[in-house]
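Re: the request from the purification team.
They wanted to know what the chain is likely to look like in 3D before they choose a buffer screen. I agreed to run a prediction and write the result into the notebook, where they can find it.
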Amino acid sequence: MKKWLIPVIVIAVIIFGLYSWGKNFNNTAVNLNENVKEAWGNVQTSYQRRNDLIGNLVNTVKGAADFEKSTLEAVIKARSQATQTTIDPSNITPEQLQQFNEAQGGLSSALSRLLVTVERYPELKANQNFLKLQDELTSTENTIQTARTRYNEAIKPYNVHVNTFPNTILAGILNFDEKPYFDAEAGAEKPVEVEFDFK
């Protein structure tokens, strides 16, 4: 074997090794990123279902002529703000996710106030449409929680893949940035105040 052939073979093996590593990294990152996008789509679908149900709930509650107008307006406004906050899952940042969480948290808070207020309206509490919508909202809140958990589960393998060495080198070059997890909503660590009104 000629001496000049040995360095050529070594260089060819190194180039092939680097190519294989780069290809495997990229293909795995793309696959994991698609899983994240799918999980995010499921989160958005769950929130969209809640928004649709809230519209029906508000219309049902409007039927109670003496119901507090300000409570309904707060729910309508919060729903509008929640639907205006959109995120591109391929470029999601911690700030965007926090903004999304705040908008959804505001809607959850307004909705909770609405449901507490309903307790003072026996005819509304007995309304079958209202009861059905209330059950569907509860089910949807559980679906949202499940979708958020699955989103976090999809994020973990992606973040591990792009943050482990030597993959982190290629991740920076190919713009595969770490993605943020869903955190608990602000104030979730505080105990819920439960009041019983026996009047």
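For the purification team: The first helix runs from residue 5 to 62.
Please add any questions underneath this entry.
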